[in-house]
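Case study 2.
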Amino acid sequence: MDHPKVKRSVLLCAAVLSSCNWYDKTTVQDIAGPVPAGARVLFFNFGVNAPGVNFYANDTKITAISSAKPDTESLIGVLYGGVGNGGLYSAIAPGQYTFTGRIADTTGGFKDRPIDTLRAAIADGKSYSFYLSGFYDATAKIVDAFVVEDPFTVPTDFSTAYVRFVHAIGNANPLTLYVRLAGDTVTAHWAAVGAAVSYKGAGAFAPLPPGVYDLGTRYTDSTTNAISRTAVSFSGGRVYTVGARGDITITSTTAANRPILDPTVNR
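Prediction:
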């Protein structure tokens, strides 16, 4: 029998859709403050084996990390698996942009070399997420990239969390996000959150009761998880993106390039 609390929420997904980011491995910032006007963009380095980068919109640097020395930029950049600007959206004027991640390190004389070139239109009043994705080619120094809209509204119902799935694994077929209350061992209680999502795609934001969940992603028609993560908290009144990154062929549970589900707070 399906778990009634999770199943009832998932059945609402088709009728109640909203929007989602949360962490950076380099800085800690407050995400609860007011949101600036205009458009907003989050920047993710999910390109497997990609170097640390600074993110640019056209020729304007949008994200960088300060070093211990005052007014000095770190040469580390946003590392693989990281989110720029401490997991906060960067305010940006609406318009047509070329988004790039540029090598932050000076080693080899490649500092500021773009490892992608993605052109995208950014609309006023909307939010977006930009991803370096797939696999970094160290010889050509290039990686995939894509941008998705984050079409959420600010939640007013603090009895509900909103969750969606973004697929950034370059060698994985379409995947569907599943959830089950943490600690539940009943196989039938796994419930899908939205439909299958292809590489470089994003699902819709769907409502879930607040709680601690185990996460899994599955291929179409599969009954087992291709990627799993346990004990992820979703708080009421928050919006989340669960991003999939890594190499789907890796079975190690410790390898840096293993397939991983990364939750991020959008709001």
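The longest helix spans residues 4-11.
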